[in-house]
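Q: what sequence does this backbone want?
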């Protein structure tokens, strides 16, 4: 069964998207920002902004570099 893609709308939908990112990370474990961006059909910049906000609200670890991820 393939996971449905989540279409993110501008505005209030970003909070819903952040909750979806947290759930995706719980299910998948460590993933790259590229994978997150592809899954949620947004840019890597959007994912990076969301992760910055999320890391101030909950326990999210990031690693930089070739083998890095969220």
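A:
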């Amino acid at each position: 069964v393939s996971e449905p893609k989540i279409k993110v709308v501008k505005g209030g939908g970003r909070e819903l998207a952040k909750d979806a990112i947290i759930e995706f990370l719980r299910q998948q474990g460590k993933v790259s920002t590229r994978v997150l961006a592809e899954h949620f059909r947004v840019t890597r910049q959007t994912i990076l902004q969301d992760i910055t906000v999320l890391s101030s609200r909950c326990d999210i670890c990031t690693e930089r570099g070739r083998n890095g991820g969220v």
